Give the backbone structure.
Amino acid sequence: MARVGAELRRQDFVEATVKVIAEHGVANATTRRIAAAAGCPLASLHYVFHTKDDLLYAVYESLFNLPHQALTNVPAGTTAAETTAEMLRQLVTWFSTNPDIAKAQTELFFWAMRNNPEMATRIYAVAIEATEQAMEKAIGTQFDKAFLKATSRLLVHLVDGLIIAWSAHGDLARLEAETETACEAVALLVASR
């Protein structure tokens, strides 16, 4: 039997955790269930991740980085308002095409708020910072830092709200319509500056 490297095993556990959380929720995502979903011994999971919180944070980091890759699809050469709206559209589109990841990320964040507020605060800070960096890269430095940070927060709030609403109503056409309304609002805000 060939040995699997710790980094590959780590990724297997992260992917299995996403599936388990999407199907059973964080509260029922036991390490035993995660190890079984990864097809690995439980001892391997505990070797790679010393605590369940370490595993859950690694999952969140992994989940957070994936949708931000969608921001590379934002077209260049548009106005700052159009670019910001397109960033929102791309993020929501990414989540809607990856519903298990959307569900797992939402579940994980709400779990962290109840059980590990410090982790929730850290997770949210990372989301805001990454969104701000993506915005700055996409639209340049034409806005002051305070406006950029506030707009980044707004994008994160809108994505979260739209995805949570979609989880409740399950209507993709409605999600797309609501996303367009949010994109128009963000574009108007940015254009007003």
User: Anything to note?
Assistant: The mean pLDDT is 87. Residues 145-169 form the longest helix (25 residues). The domain at 59-191 is CATH 1.10.357 (Tetracycline Repressor; domain 2).
